[in-house]
Amino acid sequence: MPQNVKKSELHLPEISPEVTESCLRDHDIKILQPRHGYRFSVDSLLLADFVRLRKYDHILDIGTGCGVISLVLAKKHSNVKIAALEIQKSLAGIAEKNIRLNHLDGQIALYESDLNRISEIFSAGIFDHVVTNPPYRSPVSGRLCKNSQEAFARHEILTDLDQILSAARHALHPGGRVSLIYPADRAARLLAGMHELSLEPKRLRMIHPDPNLPARLILVEGCKDAGEELRVLPPIFLNRC
Questions:
Q1: How far apart are CA 77 and CA 44, in angstroms?
Q2: pLDDT, tens digit, 9 for 90 and up, residues 59-117
Q3: Rounded CA separation 27/73 (Å)
């Protein structure tokens, strides 16, 4: 972690009994998650697999949740350093437990903070890569998740896409990259927002439930202050017929 990044002082709650433990055998990772609340989905694993890192990269994971993306990236790349940012105290506590449980506290630092304060926590341009699986459901369309923890993680209540992209731009140095996953039916908004902030989309991949159905998700990698040149990768089909 860069010397001018200081870890926030955390007051972590005890993990309640309402927590389950799962195992990602492909990565030899144990994951604690709320039994009732926000639980990571395949979206996070797809994003972690999509991310391209270089040796000694410094990475910012925005909205880390229980920390699954940071954990997978740290396991795959033993020489990177990761700052995992989470606003929800309960999830930040679980993420910290997961970091210690997997003996990755030498690679991952947990920051419990509001994205609005990113310029107070991190100096501009100190990260090589930003990763995020942002909340992308509108709070005014459809039904909110009944569990408040899950609602904050999945709906644009505490933050929105514009704020997340602005935070990514602040965090990255010129030529730094951002990787994220978003609903395919909102891809136009995502790509336009990235272009507007000069986080130019460079790689794109569509995720389909199966070969006969429209894409459900989109994976995008953007580069700060880069030129316009987009590479569209072959699609992923989660269920092949």
A1: 17
A2: 999 999 999 999 999 999 999 999 999 998 989 999 999 999 999 999 999 999 988 89
A3: 9
Contact between residue 180 and residue 172 where contact means Cβ atoms under 8 Å apart: no
CATH number listed for the domain at residues 19-237 = 3.40.50.150
Provide the token pair at 8: 């926030």
CA torsion 205-55-112-177 (nearest 10°) is -40
Question: For the chain, how many residues are written?
Answer: 241
- The residue assigned the tokens 């994951």 is 31
Tokens of 30: 């144990």
SS (H, E, C) the chain: CCCCCCCCCCCCCCCCCCEEEEEECCCCEEEEEECCCCCCCHHHHHHHHHCCCCCCCEEEEECCCCCHHHHHHHHHCCCCEEEEEECCHHHHHHHHHHHHHCCCCCCEEEEECCHHHHHHHCCCCCEEEEEECCCCECCCCCCCCCCHHHHHHHECCCCCHHHHHHHHHHHEEEEEEEEEEEEHHHHHHHHHHHHHCCEEEEEEEEEECCCCCCCCEEEEEEEECCCCCCEECCCEECCCC
The residue extents of the domains of the chain are 19-237
> What does the pLDDT look like over 190-232, one tens digit per residue?
999 999 999 999 999 999 999 999 999 999 999 999 999 999 9
Question: How far is C-alpha 37 from the chain's CA centre?
Answer: 18
Write the single-letter amino acid at 96.
E
